[in-house]
Amino acid sequence: MLALRQASAFRVLLLTAFLPPLQWAQDPAMVHYIYQRFRVLETYTSEYKSAVDSLALRVERAQREIDYLEYLREADACVESEEETLAEKLVQEAEEEKRIRTLLNASCDNMLMGIKSLKIVKKTMDTDGSWMKDAVSDSPKVYFLIGSRNNTVWEFANIRAFMEDSTKPGPRKLLLTHSWQGTGQVVYKGFLFFHSQGTRNEIIKYNLQKRTVEDRMLLSGGAGRALVYQHSPSTFIDLAVDEHGLWAIHSGPGIQSHLVLTKIEPDTLGMEHSWDTPCRSQDAEAAFLLCGVLYVVYSLGGQGPHRITCVYDTLGTVSEENLPNLFFPRRPRSHSMIHYNPRDKQLYAWNDGNQIIYKLQTKRKEPLE
Question: Residue 162 belongs to a domain with what CATH number?
Answer without folding.
Answer: 2.120.10
